[in-house]
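ingest -> validate -> predict -> emit
validate: passed (alphabet ok, no gaps, 393 aa)
predict: started
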Amino acid sequence: MLSLALAGKPNAGKSTFYKAATMADVDVANYPFTTIDANRGVTHARTRCPCLDRDERCGNDNCHGGKRYVPVELLDVAGLVPGAHEGRGLGNQFLDELTNADAIVNVVDASGGTNAEGEPVEVGTYDPVEEVDFIEEEMDQWLAGIVNRNWESVERKSRSPDFDVDEALTELLTGFGATEADVAASLRELDYPEDPLQWTDDHREALARDVRRRTKPIVLVANKADVASEENVRRLEETGKPVIPATADGELALRKAAQAGAVAYDPGDEDFDVVGDVSDAQRSGLERIREVMADYGGTGVQGALDFAVYDLLDRITAYPVQNESKWTDGQGNVLPDAFLLPRGSTPRDLAYAVHTDIGDGYLHAVDARSDRRISDSYELDEGDVVKIVSTAK
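emit:
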């Protein structure tokens, strides 16, 4: 399952974001290091379900009237403080937890109501733009430290007559969650000596930064947009980084209200309807949330998750079926499964995503929309419905 990690300084709203995105029971409090042990839960990326192209909706539990929610792992760990890569706060524990994350959702307190250490201050007295490069820099320095600490082993290997510096660096960095292709791409971009003894700290840091950029892309969440000044949000957006304004508090309130039957709302909607009995105070609170949603096209929580999956990681959603005419599995369930695959994936890649045996026994695939066999080299597109024909059952 694709994995996203929430990053940010303490008290920026990560745990509220996590609770809103997963509806898991976690501690949410107004003090640093509320989260000590990492929380792991399941959230979802939202996309258009192919059932909208048929006469009836699919009825899948993860489809709400044609809004398809695809499971994604979400990780919430302890907040970072300056110097985390040197072990300050819970820095090393936090950074180690990020190793297997595919992308980072950096939650920033856009209101300026918490300082660099995550301590509450008067709203507007801290500049949130100071945090834009903070997580990126801590992660880069952390990875550079890993490379530096393990460099002696690379130097030892260089004494072997068949030593290959690219192979040695690939072996070192794949432990960080990088693939061989990631490391190869970084090495193609950099100028570096063939002899590890001639590498400087600058060489190693440049390698660490490039590998981190490729393997841990970051989207910035301008959280607390409901109390932040428009100027703060605008200045964050002008940094050139991907920025999603959000109110995690607002999203959590809407999800709880939807569970209680007070509002009709699906995560990622741009608005909601009050359908149950609410008090005047509750209605007033809901209207304040509605105003923020009108300004930013929603609460931003689902938008940030979707951006991380479909933009940062460039994934597409594909739907394997057994019956190409009815779009069902062997039990008659319509569009039972949805898989997030890297753009450029082929039908064989989808077969392996379903099960290794299905991939090993792959014969060919059929486009369920056209009922035509498709090429093994065909690149799957968002929303493709595919029958995999395999010797495996």
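Residues 280-296 form the longest helix (17 residues).
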